[in-house]
Design a protein that fits this description.
39% helix, alpha/beta, Oxidized Rhodanese, domain 1
């Protein structure tokens, strides 16, 4: 499911790593909203193209962000590592 969302460019990829980590490499076209800013930027996040696929370094922080956002009614999925998400994005149609 997540794989198809990414490959078909059906939503928005949100990377919740720090700005420094994001600058070191990221999925092309993804947005960087660090985990510690997710709550404060909720309205901005709700305005994004859904569903959201969240990613980070290993899937831990994106899991926390996914749980918080789902509780706020946001259509989102934990994509895990940004490297995995990047792999699927590279196969986009």
């Amino acid at each position: 499911m997540i794989e198809n969302i990414i490959k078909n460019n059906e939503g928005t990829i949100v990377d919740v790593r720090t700005v420094g980590e994001f600058m070191g490499g990221n999925v092309a076209g993804s947005l960087n909203i660090p985990l510690n800013e997710v709550q404060a930027r909720l309205e901005e996040i709700k305005a994004l193209k859904m569903p959201l696929v969240l990613c980070c370094a290993s899937g831990g922080r994106s899991g926390q962000a996914t749980a918080f956002l789902k509780a706020q009614g946001v259509d989102c999925y934990n994509g895990g590592s940004w490297l995995d998400v990047n792999y699927y994005a590279a196969q986009a149609v």
